[in-house]
Amino acid sequence: MNRHQIQLLLPILFGFFIMGFCDVVGISSSYVKQDFGLTETEANFLPSMVFIWFFAFSVPTGLLMNKIGRKNTVLVSMLFTFLAMLLPLIQYNYTICLTAFALLGIGNTILQVSLNPLLSNVVSEEKLTSSLTAGQFVKAISSFCGPIIAACATAWFGNWQYMFPLFAAITLISTVWLLLTAVPREQAGQNVSSFKDCFGLLGNKTVLWLFLGIVFVVGVDVGMNTVTPKILMERCGMALSEAGYGTSLYFAFRTAGAFIGAIILARYASGKFFLYSIFTALAALIVLLFAQEKWLIWGGVSVIGFACANVFSILFSFALQTVPEKANGVSGLMIMGVAGGAIIPVFMGLATEAVGSQTGATLIIGLCMVYLLFCALAFRKKH
Known about the structure:
The chain is an all-alpha fold. The chain has two domains: 3-125 and 149-185, Up-down Bundle (Growth Hormone, Chain: A); 199-379, Growth Hormone, Chain: A, CATH 1.20.1250. Helix content is 82%, strand content 0%. It contains 17 helices and no strands. The chain is globular.
């Protein structure tokens, strides 16, 4: 990759840092609940305000890209994110918080749909998977930093809300940087021009397999974040404050996995890497099903986080390469699959109640991984 390509790539990769801002809703919901004395149900509306838009806006964003281009669509997403960061500073109440996180969710949906294919404007098809993985690494750093920034704002300025002007400033820098970068426009021929055309892409068996793969890998990710503390509390008698470190451990190894994956995928076939990753994750999950000791549970969680770190990027790149002339529509469909993060935990809850322990939830995650294993076997020789 020459110097000019790197100059084009950097502002796009920096956009993935903005993408990670959606994960700040996790720590924010705890602060908002505390500030306004909310019930658990009321506090849980905040994450819902972020998640629901992935289902509602993903496909329309794919169609919007056909009209105004990928770069301009990314810039629109930045505007929504910037406004979301300003609202709590203007006035701070529960309604404003819901509105702010709705704007953040809309902006993040638009960003995820448009930023991923924008990479294909500046990198070759062979480098697309590793570039997407590098973007996920940048996003993971942002997600990891969010709670730390909130804690620092509270410690230094006495108010967690002071993280919002920092996020707004970073968003503005990203917007200006991309605006001033002459990213090549995508070639003509993005002939997905209606909802019917877009959903019609699911008639392609490969696209359908990959869409379901996105649903299940996001389900694995959200499921692991949800079930890890519960397993530690159930089997090891930990308090929630201590068991919560299991989730942090998962994120830490996921970040490391994305970094190493970006290096490996730049040199080796992504199909085989996908297969090895899922085999490893499934083996670790089997250990997790029966583990009773704290160190063994932490080990299983760490390996799963590390092994699954690159699966989303691999599936997404496979989808873009399957129908490259309809990449905008494909991107919208794939990001709509992120709604799997809202669907799979429901089945985990039902399974837990049926079995009477978190083993039920873990089995649901295992079923998701089995599907991903079939995907990996199907695509191991194609990419």
